[in-house]
Sequence to fold (263 residues):
Amino acid sequence: MASRCRKPVFRASYRSGLIRFLSLFAALFLALAAAAFSQTAPAKKNSRPSDGKVSEKPVPKEFVPVYSYEFENPKFHVSHVKIEHDEAGVGKVTFRKLDYEEDITEPLELSESTLAHLKKLWNELNFLASTEELQSPVRDYGHLGTMTIAMSKEGRSREVAFNWTEIKEAKELTDEYKKIGNQFIWIFDIDVARRNQPLETPRIMKGLDSSLRRGAISDPGQMLPFLRELKDDERLPLIARNHAERIIARIEKEAKENQDGQD
Fold:
C-alpha cells in the first residue's frame, strides 16, 4: 500500500516542476523578444536621428550662393529639395522627407566635373540676360512638382519657376541638379542608418545600386571614398559591406573604361 501512495505524489511534483520550468522559459523568451524588438524596431517618424548627429562636416556659413535649384511637391516622399552653391561649388543642400518634421540641411561640395557641367549649361541658357520663358506652352505637369532655378551674380539676379520645359539646356540643368540631390540625400540616409539602424543599410545600398544603373547619380566617382569607408565599417551587416565593395568595383571599372575611351 505504501508504494501505491508514493506514485501520485511523484507525478504531482513532476507536473509542478514542469509548469514552473515552462513558466520561467516563457518569461525569458518574452524578455529576449522584447529586447530584440527594441533594437530592431524602426525609428519613430517625424524625429531626427537618435544620436542627434547627422553630419561630420559643418554646413559652410560664409559661402555666398550664386546658383540655386529648388523642387517642391508635397505629395512626394522627398517633398522639398533646395541646392545652393557658389562659383567654387561649395554650398548646402536642404531637403524635407516624410520621416522628418523639419528640413534637413547638409553641406555640399560639388566635384570639378559636375561644377563645370553646370556652369556650361547656365552659360548656354544665358540665364541672367535672357527673358525667355522656361515653362512649356503646351505641357503643364504641375502634379509632378514645381522647379525653380535662380542666379545672383554681379549685382543682377533672376528666378524662374516651371514644371516642364521644352528648352534642352534648362531640362539638362534641372536633371543634373536632381542627380546631385539624389547623391547627397543618399549619403545622408545611409550615414544615419549605420549609426541608428544598421539593419536598414542593405536596403539603402540597393537603392544606390538602382540609381547608379539608371544614371541618376551626379558623380559616382566622388562617392568612392565614402563607399570605401562603408565597406570597412563593421557596424554594417556583411551583405551591405559586400554590396558596397561590388559597387566600388563597378564605378572604378566604368571610370577606367571612360578614361581609356578618351585617350
